[in-house]
UniProtKB/TrEMBL annotation:
GO biological process, one term: methylation
Name this protein carries in UniProt: methylated-DNA--[protein]-cysteine S-methyltransferase
Domain Methylated-DNA-[protein]-cysteine S-methyltransferase DNA binding: 103-183
Record EC number: 2.1.1.63
Example of a GO MF term: methylated-DNA-[protein]-cysteine S-methyltransferase activity
């Protein structure tokens, strides 16, 4: 798995034809945020989620070969666990991701990766940053379509009124991640 592919790509192999011809390595790590599912192709991380059953990988990548652990995957998993446990102290921008989405989703995901640790943006600011200030709801939808939470830090996006908004893995995990990064002092 190359660490040089830092930008989400539009035609990542794991997302083409149900993952046909792709090996997806995966495992579940126990973290202070709960069980964390991590899965990666040779190009990068394809799934990072909390409290999710690994069976989801068979649904998303039905034609891929899915292998628990092995190869260089354990070292990657250690890095990602470190990023979850100490996101304010650990740089994870170098960890490659293998995601696929529309051009708009790709632009939102790239903007998310540019939000510095310890900072947040509103959905409106995110939409404006990608040149679509009227697309606030679409920015929220693109944020929610992110399959590699933490690495594409969708937890750093909040509502205009300052409330946390949503998070696929629960607002408690979102708040804890923001606290660990120094962006949120109190829950």
């Amino acid at each position: 798995m190359s660490h040089s592919d830092q930008t989400p790509s539009a035609a990542a192999s794991a997302w083409v034809d149900g993952g046909r011809g792709t090996v997806i390595r995966w495992d579940v790590a126990q973290t202070s945020l709960g069980p964390m599912l991590v899965a990666a192709s040779e190009k990068g991380v394809v799934r990072l989620s909390f409290g999710e059953d690994p069976a989801v990988l068979a649904e998303r990548f039905p034609k891929a070969e899915r292998v628990q652990g092995g190869g260089t995957f354990p070292a990657l998993l250690v890095e990602i666990v470190r990023a979850a446990e100490a996101p304010g102290e650990t740089d994870f921008d170098h960890i490659p991701v293998d995601v696929s989405g529309t051009p708009f989703q790709q632009s939102i995901w790239q903007a998310l990766r540019r939000i510095p640790k310890g900072e947040t943006r509103t959905y409106a600011e995110l939409a404006a940053e990608v040149g679509r200030p009227g697309a606030v709801r679409a920015a929220g939808s693109a944020n929610g379509a992110n399959h590699v939470s933490l690495l594409i830090p969708c937890h750093r996006v909040i509502r205009t009124d300052g409330s946390l908004g949503g998070y696929a893995w629960g607002l408690e995990i979102k708040a804890r991640l923001l606290q660990r990064e120094g962006a949120l002092l109190l829950i």
